[in-house]
Structures are given as C-alpha cells and as structure tokens.
Amino acid sequence: MSSSPRFIIYAHNGTYDKLHQVATLGLTAAAMGKDVTVVLLFWTIKKLAEGKINEVDFPPEYQAYHDEVSRLISERRVPKISEMFEDAKNVGQFRLVACSAGLEYMGVDADAVAKQVDEVMGLPAILAMAAEAETTLFI
C-alpha cells in the first residue's frame, strides 16, 4: 500500500450521472496524489459486466433531460467513463476493485468482470483496505 492518503469511493449506483461523479472525483483525486480505489458494487458491477459502463442513462426522475444532456455531453466532448478511469491510472494511483459478493448477487460472469478490474475482493478485505482512509465516499 502507498503512503499517499487513501481516497475510497464505493460505487453502487450505475446510472451515468453517478458514474460520471465517481470517474471525475477519482481522476481528480489521483491527479492530486491520492491513492484512489473505486469499489464497484451491485449496479456498477452489472453495468461493467454487460459492457455498458459508458452508456448515458439517468434515473427516472431525470429522464426528461436525457436528450438534452446527452447532446451537451457529445458537443462538449466529455470523456467516456472508461476513458476517465484509464486517465486516472495514467496520472496517479487508481485501482478498480469489484466486490466478490456483488459478482454473485448480480448474476454476472465473474471472469469477464475480473478481466476489467484490478482486483476482486471480499468485503472483509475491502473494509480492511479502506480503514483509515482520508476520504470515503458512497455514490
């Protein structure tokens, strides 16, 4: 483990608006020298497994804005979620971790997910890794 301050993001919600925040916060923290770990849970695991991590979707209460926001994202060339995750790895310390129980509960191909993350961990290991983190977010 690094001596840099740990920055942990528990990513539970898989809609674009939440994943965008996970990606931008993770990228920014990595660029600021933090040791960033994004822990993928339930819906983020499902979205990654289905190859939909870059899909622009929103919760029902924001569906009316989908077309306008999608257009603005495209016009302003906002990077894809996967690109921001890759950029974070290139500028600093950034890891994607999938929760092993989430792989089971979401009924996904565990091997396919394992190939797209840095590590698959159980909750006891995740909590031990996150202990004494400077910042912990649940999104």
Briefly summarize what is shown.
The protein has 139 residues and is an alpha/beta fold.
Mean pLDDT metric: 96
DSSP E strands, number: 5
Q: How is the main sheet built? A: 5 strands, parallel
Principal-axes shape call: globular
Cα distance spanning the termini: 24 Å
Count of individual domains: 1
**Architecture (CATH level 2) name:** 3-Layer(aba) Sandwich
What CATH first level would be assigned?
Answer: Alpha Beta
CATH superfamily: DsrEFH-like
CATH level 3 topology: Hypothetical Protein Ychn, Chain: A
Please describe the topology of this protein.
Elements: E1 6-11, H1 16-31, E2 35-40, H2 42-49, H3 66-75, H4 81-91, E3 93-99, H5 100-105, H6 110-114, E4 119-121, H7 123-130, E5 135-138
Parallel strand pairs: 1-2, 1-5, 2-3, 3-4
Helix pairs in contact: 1-4
Characterization of this structure:
With 139 residues, this protein is of the alpha/beta class. It has a single domain (6-138), classed as DsrEFH-like (Hypothetical Protein Ychn, Chain: A, 3-Layer(aba) Sandwich), CATH 3.40.1260. Helix content is 46%, strand content 19%. It contains 7 helices and 5 strands. The protein has helices spanning 16-31, 42-49, 66-75, 81-91, 100-105, 110-114, 123-130, and strands at 6-11, 35-40, 93-99, 119-121, 135-138. Helix 1 packs parallel to helix 4 (81-91). The longest helix has 16 residues, at 16-31. The two termini are 24 Å apart.
Keywords:
7 helices; 46% helix; 19% strand; alpha/beta; 139 residues
